[in-house]
Amino acid sequence: MKRETKKSRDNETIVFDIAKPVKQKPGCRSNGRNVGSEPGAKEPLGLRIIGGKFRGRKLQYVGDNRVRPMKDRVREAVFNLIGPSIKGMHAVDLFGGTGAIAIEAISRGAVSTTIIELHLPTAALLKKNLETLDLLPVCNLYKTDTFYWVKNEAAHPSKDFPWIVFCSPPYEFYSARQADMLDMLNRLVALAPADSMFVIESDQRFDLTLLPRVPEPNRIRSYPPAVIAIFMK
User: Fold this and answer.
1) Residues 6+ positions from 27 with CB-CB distance below 8 Å
2) 182: how many CB neighbours lie within 10 A of its CB?
3) Residue 197, beta-bridge partner list
4) ∠ CA(149), CA(153), CA(154), 5° rounding?
5) CA separation for the pair 230, 164 (Å, rounded)
6) Pick from 204, 210, 230: nearest CA to 80
7) Which of 9, 20, 89, 186 has the fewest CB atoms within 10 Å, counting from its CB?
8) pLDDT (tens digit per residue) in 64-122
9) Contacts of 46 (CB under 8 A, 6+ apart)
10) In the prediction, which pLDDT does 179 show?
11) What is the pLDDT of residues 10-41, one digit of tens each?
12) What Rg value do the Cα atoms of the chain yield, rounded?
């Protein structure tokens, strides 16, 4: 995969991973690209950071159906399950969307974050959310397909800190792209430093025993339609 850097108007270097171009209508998944859920407007959610140093800060979100932000109550429950172990970890958000999960992780003590988001308008809004909170110095934002990114080890974060990997894709990826999903997660588990943590959001249709590590029963929670599973390397 080729990588290019482009200087923006404010002289900030933005990293682009250049994959083979694929012609595609917005929102279509028939060609296997990672574009999220179907396009179209819906009522914007009131997104805010739940805990930590940015508690109460609001995030921009336009309500595009390509983005399915984790609901506040689910995000709060997830970070309660994770607890203080997030402190000192590097957060990896595989399907970035608004950046709410990655920003919540930083707010609660993660030292840095890597975010991957393919949809360019969504990535631009995500970048604004990072700028508003002055988080660009500790965030690597990749505007690329998650399934390409995971195969590009040069783009992966340092192994100086354990990773906490958040996998919250469109639910249908677990069926329509199950082989890709499992290959991606197996690669990351193999590459991640010791004591890394994986937080998986799916729905009830996905068989959690297919994960690289089968989560302990007490590390699985249901918040319909979401199912959260956490396992350690």
Assistant:
1) 35, 36, 37, 38, 39, 40, 65, 66
2) 14
3) 164, 232
4) 100
5) 10
6) 230
7) 9
8) 555 667 778 889 999 999 999 999 999 999 999 989 999 999 999 999 999 999 999 99
9) 58
10) 97
11) 434 344 443 333 333 333 333 444 433 334 44
12) 17
Cβ neighbour number for residue 58 with a 10 Å cutoff? 12
**% helix, strand, coil for the chain, step of 5:** 30, 20, 50
Over residues 205-225, mean pLDDT: 96
Length of the chain: 233
Which class does domain 2-232 fall in? alpha beta
- Per-residue b or e along 130-144, where b marks 16 or more CB atoms closer than 10 Å to that residue's CB: beebebeeebbbbbb
Structure-token pair, residue 130: 């990072």
In this prediction, residues 195-209 reach a mean pLDDT of 97
- Amino acid code (one letter) for 228: I
Establish whether the linkage from the previous residue to 225 is cis, with ω within 30° of 0.
Answer: yes
> Is it the case that residue 54 has pLDDT exceeding 70?
yes
- In the block, tokens 């974060």 appear at 157
Q: Residue 114 burial by CB count (10 A; 0-12/13-18/19+): exposed, middle or buried?
A: buried
Is residue 181 within 8 A of residue 216, CB to CB? The reply is no
How far, CA to CA in Å, does 73 sit from each of 51, 79, 108, 169, 222?
Answer: 12, 10, 16, 18, 12
Q: What is the DSSP string of 13-34?
A: EEEEEEPPP----TT--TT---
pLDDT at 186 over 90: yes
